[in-house]
Amino acid sequence: MNCDDTRRNDRQLSRSSFRHLVSLLFRRRFSFRDRQYRLADQQAVTLDSAPENWHESFIEHLASVLKPRVCVELGLYRCELFNRIISHAQRLIGVDINAEAGNWMAKSDKVQFVHSTTDEFAATLREHPILIDMLFIDADHSKRAVLRDFWNFFPFVSPQGIIILHDTHPKNNDYTQPGYCGNAYKAIEELSRHTDLFEIMTIPVHPGLTLCRKRTTQLSWMEVGIY
Length: 227
Ligand SMILES: C[S@@+](CC[C@H](N)C(=O)[O-])C[C@H]1O[C@@H](n2cnc3c(N)ncnc32)[C@H](O)[C@@H]1O
Description:
Layout: H1 3-48, H2 54-66, E1 70-74, H3 80-85, E2 91-96, H4 100-103, E3 111-115, H5 118-127, E4 132-137, H6 143-153, E5 157-166, H7 184-191, E6 198-203, E7 209-214
Parallel strand pairs: 1-2, 1-4, 2-3, 4-5
Antiparallel strand pairs: 5-7, 6-7
Bound molecules: S-adenosylmethionine.
S-adenosylmethionine binds next to helix 3 and strand 2.
């Protein structure tokens, strides 16, 4: 092979490696874009396809499986969820700062309406403790209030009890305003760091529902104090 041949071969080689590099780059960019498109598609499905109140059927079903002895809901509005759970729990307490909420509560000797702030109710529990098997936090949706509700009521949640938090995955920035989901999602970001006392996960469907289990052992029947 003479010098010219070698140079020609070198040029061919560098041209083909250049083409290979370009094809790799394009392939990378294409698959990255492809992934972005696919993610956008998935988000369109997960964020917009469910009705706003999908949490009601979900929590009702959960209650029908768990059959909690004591169920507490913080923030009732018109008791739409609360009333659906009555048949699945032994005792239910609903708390709302607005007295109107009590008018929506179905009549039953299992239910109790507490007309107060969640803070005031937590103070009452410190005097007269109860054990809560299922707690639904859905009152003030600011990060500060959600964290306060969580830690104020945590001592009263039974070992292996379930805590549910609403409005924790708003579909866009507009929904993070105080009148809607607020910045409750930031409370979840913070709580997610404390996984020794509980496990926690969020269903990323607008407006978002976070499930939390108070536990120190994975197997419920190994938990000290459960039986
Ligand atoms: C989003 S609504 C509750 C909806 C209800 N959980 C459901 O799923 O149908 C929020 C309720 O929390 C109540 N609320 C807001 N801040 C509160 C507080 N600090 N203490 C008690 N209730 C509060 C409001 O009056 C309102 O009725």
